[in-house]
């Protein structure tokens, strides 16, 4: 231990003798370690940290899939069959989520509500903060309206009032008695504010629905608690058996339905895992490049300390003793860089969380914990060993007698150092190529995504959701009267050009429905074509600037007493009427009249395609119904303006309040903001990978410059002789640059080969760009070549200015 303290004291003195060198090494390591620790904080929270539920490892999600292996919502009747037939789940619960109006004095707040089966909280092993949770009797028909309130809402809106249990609160105009308060931090699913039990057996949209009969229309999510000792594999096998049985029993509705059982953690993380692992791999490359750079710096420093170490060896120090001293100094640099890197990581995590999409899994839980501290310490120690070992091994092999001779400078040990430095430079360049190619592909993909034609004009459009509820709204006509009056008042606001309404805004997931076409051969329901289901007001298409390419738009005469009309988009027309004019044709959405006859909707127009779900997905088949004939309770209002959209937001709120001050107004944002939100994740991926690539490029350029400059310094005597013998400035310049570019070319070649293999991991993140996009590969090659040329040219140019007489006296 005493020897270690001596090594540390000596190391401190040695490092303080060269403050510039020490600062450069520490900063380089801090950048690499800090970036790695910041990304690890995200990876740790999302992928490694257990979910905050009792027995979280036993909680699973049961997903329903269609034939294309895409997730669809669970139907109530299927859920009831799962619950009755399974033998692997201790608890199985269903969830239906929707927004709700919470009445507060003379206003309403839009909150998130979850309707859950009675055993929902038992799945998570949650215990109420106050009161109780649901019991089986609470999910029987005719139960009293009761509610469980989240801890967060209890604190935010009711000030933690201990007497809230037993008191009524009003949701959507209905009085519910609070029976319990959820524990702090519990808000599954998503950020639920309140939970209510279903009307009977399983959650359904309304009391008139019989859950035992609802098979063709999914609306639920399902979670379960595995029985002790039951594996995930066994649960998967049994659920596949049950769903296969249901497909045989109910072919009309279940023929395209399959099931998948996954851990709740996997369910929540979704497709985020591969993206995070890709970013973590990228930042690891940055750390390796930083280590290579520091190793090069230490090799250069070691060359100047050869005589010092030779003297220590001559005085009796063993090779192991010399190596230990050098490794001690390396560890001191690494740990100092680690401390500074941890501070950078804390700042980086705060920045990253602001850039992440709002629906990013476990976003609110992201914060550094002991695992991040352990990772930072481990990264510091390992990097200290990584970049310190090679210089220590090299310098400990020094020939003592040769080094102590004045003529020994520049002998075989220097050649060994040069070979190692060259290998490190090749490695740095290769890693940089991989990162830059990845960033280039994401950049090209992002540009393609930004250039997508959305099908509407997002500029100058304000959007907001209106949610009327209460005793004044008993019929569809009551809701439509509210929207009509509100839109009339908004239209009168100065600067407003057009106002429309829709049940689901573009780029947001909405309902879908199947249909059959009149005159076509009959098909079973599971084979009906489907499309996105939108209900719009008469002026919606004008407000969003969506062209009607054939037929007409809706008008005020398309009321509930008029013939039912429908507008389809071009994608649906091309799919279902490829060689026919769809206008005038009729379709049925599955509904019947009181006599059991199908209700037909006449196609009166064809609208241009709109990107309804994601920018990266081609326009899907879609149909629009008139809000006068098919009214939704909660609708989004779109306001096209001739002024800055946000400048009329307050006036729009007042207009809605003048019609009904208790109607909740929420999600006030511009359409441009919604379009920008649609590219939040690609922008985040591009920003981080681009940042890491830029750091890698700078570090590589610094490494190339450093090695070239050191080589020039070591060969000053040689250059002097060459110039004295008649070599021209251009000859020396070309020789130095050629030797440097040989290393760069090798690194670029290796990096390009690695990129061809590794960029395939980006396939799911790219849009409109191939993983082997030649333009990206050529551009990155040229960029690195230019940077490398510049990094070689500067020290080479300095070498040509050496006075031959001075150089010849160098020895």
Q: What's the total helix number?
A: 24
Radius of gyration: 34 Å
Structural class: alpha+beta
Give me the count of strands.
23
Q: Which runs of at least 5 residues are low in confidence (pLDDT < 50)?
A: 406-413
- How much helix is in the residues? 40-55%
The percent range for strand residues is 15-25%
Summed over residues and divided by their number, the pLDDT gives a mean of 85
Judging from the principal axes of the Cα atoms, what is the shape? elongated
Distance between the termini: 42 Å
Largest sheet: 11 strands, mixed
Q: Explain this structure to me?
A:
The protein has 811 residues and is an alpha+beta fold. It has 24 helices and 23 strands. Strands 1, 2, 3, 4, 5, 6, 7, 8, 9, 10 and 11 form an eleven-stranded mixed beta sheet that branches. The longest helix is centred in the middle third of the chain and has 39 residues, at 412-450. It starts with a helix and ends with a helix.
Give the structure's gist in a few sentences:
With 811 residues, the chain is α+β, with helices and mostly antiparallel strands. Helices cover 49% and strands 17% of the residues.
Topology:
Layout: H1 2-16, H2 19-48, E1 59-65, E2 71-72, H3 76-85, E3 89-104, E4 107-116, H4 120-124, E5 130-131, E6 146-149, H5 151-158, E7 168-171, E8 174-181, E9 194-196, E10 221-226, H6 232-249, H7 251-254, E11 258-263, H8 264-269, H9 272-304, H10 306-314, H11 319-355, H12 370-396, H13 400-404, H14 412-450, E12 461-467, H15 476-491, E13 496-502, E14 512-514, E15 516-517, E16 530-536, H16 540-544, E17 548-551, E18 565-569, H17 570-576, E19 586-592, E20 598-607, E21 622-626, E22 635-641, H18 649-659, E23 664-670, H19 671-677, H20 680-714, H21 716-724, H22 729-758, H23 774-799, H24 804-808
Parallel strand pairs: 4-9, 6-8, 16-21, 18-20
Antiparallel strand pairs: 1-2, 1-10, 1-11, 3-4, 3-10, 5-8, 6-9, 7-8, 12-22, 12-23, 13-22, 14-16, 15-19, 17-20, 18-21, 19-20
Helix pairs in contact: 1-11, 2-9, 2-11, 2-12, 3-6, 9-12, 9-14, 9-20, 11-12, 12-14, 14-20, 14-22, 14-23, 15-18, 20-23, 22-23
